[in-house]
Amino acid sequence: MSSAAPARRRAYFLDREDWLGRVMIAPAVIYIAALIGMPFFLALFYSFSNITVGTEELHFVGLKNFRAILDTPGFQVALKNSFIFTFVSQAIVLILAKILALSLVRDFRGKWVVRLLIILPWVAPISLGAIGWLWMLDSIYSIVNWGLRAVGIFGPSTWPIWLGLPKLAMASVIAVHVWRLLPLATIILLAGLTSIPRDIQEAAAADGARFWRQLFEITIPMVLPIMGVAVLFGIVFTFTDMIVIFVLTRGGPFDSTHVLASLAFFTGIEGGDLAEGAAIALFLFPLLVAVAFLMLRLARRSEVT
């Protein structure tokens, strides 16, 4: 009798959908809280203190760290670069991913090989890919320069130093980041295109709608929510990423390619000022919350309409 009562209670809770849902989602909530919540609150605590590497005592300093970094020219450059790096790369990724997805949705010979080649940059470790690009953009052995000179685009006296000049360095890190994110965006948009009912497209074609009209009146409106998810993921990922910049330029030349994530790393970890590095990193939080809120609202409106 005593063993039957717990079994009935377990069966009662497992039969209730609200309790079962909470039990099933609890591991994910615990994982997110441990992986993201604890470092976030630790960074919040550090940002209001004077902690540095090797500090034996730490004291509460209020908003001193935030006021200090706001007056720093390097922070202002990194903040501007974060927006340039994110929105320029995402605009290019969205356009190229749409073109690739529209091409891959059609049937042709060797389609699986093309899909495999497109997905490879995302599957490969980004550090290895970035090191490959580091050699390709080398100031002396750049295969990009040699190739463009071989086909006649560059003349004998033209030899760009891709990672040695501020504007070229920023363009280079954006190009490599586009190369990295393009496969994932293509797969997401391809999934959205394949979900469009064929009868809608066939009916539009029967009514005389050509490619461009179908694209802007049928295809894009129907995949707009999925495009919103792809853009949201790309913006959040790009704002918080520093691997490409760390490998290619380390923020140079002259700190011209630093973004908030890389500046926080070099200030807090390599520079040893954990408090100021945490304060820089926390500037990402309100920006990402605002972007996520805006993109989710736009996606919801497009779904409703």
Keyword list:
14 helices, mainly alpha, MetI-like fold, 0% strand
Q: How many E strands?
A: 0
Give the oligomeric state of the chains in this entry, treating copies of one chain as homo and distinct chains as hetero. single chain
CATH class: Mainly Alpha
Q: Count helical runs.
A: 14
Q: How much β-strand is present in the residues?
A: under 5%
Assigned CATH superfamily = MetI-like
* Backbone CA Rg: 25 Å
What topology does this entry show?
Blueprint: H1 4-15, H2 17-47, H3 64-70, H4 73-104, H5 111-123, H6 126-136, H7 143-150, H8 166-194, H9 198-206, H10 211-239, H11 243-248, H12 260-270, H13 274-282, H14 284-304
Helix pairs in contact: 2-13, 3-13, 4-8, 4-10, 4-12, 5-8, 8-10, 10-14, 12-13
Textual characterization of the structure:
- The protein has 305 residues and is mainly alpha-helical.
- The protein has a single domain, classed as MetI-like (MetI-like fold), CATH 1.10.3720.10.
- It is built from 14 helices and no strands.
- The longest helix has 32 residues, at 73-104.
Concise synopsis of the structure shown:
This protein is mainly alpha-helical.
